[in-house]
Request: fold
Amino acid sequence: MKGNTISLKPLNESGKKWIEKTLQLLQVQEYGKGTVRNYSQELTLLFKHYNELSVEELRQEHIEKYLIFIKENHKVGRAKCRSVAQACSYFFKKVMPSDYIVPSNLYPKKQFVLPDIMSEQQVKKLFEAPLNLKEKCVVGLLYGCGLRISEVCNLKITDIDSCNSRIKVVQGKGGKDRFTLLPPSLLENLRQYYLESNRPETYLFTSLQTKRAMHVRSMQLVVNKAMEKAGFESGRLP
Reply:
């Protein structure tokens, strides 16, 4: 929302103090540059909007009114509301702990539905979509190897048997291990992703913040984006 009336408002001393504390904590906790930038920008705009109040005076009703304001006056979408909510959630949980901020109340959750069955033409359309490397790998594992989304999240480097072109799925459905075939084209994508991801030690797909296995919800967002690129709105088949 660059150039809008909110950004033109001055940031009061309380806002400056808490933005500085937020930046310090984000850096100490080694958050990514993108997250640091987004949280800082969203909180700065929020504090500027309420520059007649100190940050300590803000309550959940202020956050909700702010979201309504930017939706009605600046026509922002769900992604922007989510960005504001995430920044507020971090700030009021980690920086200035408060018990009145409930993230689920701040923005509508978008239901994700992963299609169980796709026709050959639909699968072809998905694989021909302009996906990035990560999306290609995830989609390939789901629809090329038959892995479940939780199994993709928990896929370890050692589970990929490149010599025998197969993947070992550990403790899959029913608590049983199984093997699934690994297509050559997908193996090449996985190798490239591994190298471009700075050679992760354990799990192939990891969280940038925790370095642990990627959460199912985060993986669902990756798939959702791939489905949208292929023309399947919100992960639903036409």
About this structure: Residues 153 and 214 are 5 Å apart (CA to CA). The first strand starts at residue 160 and ends at 161.
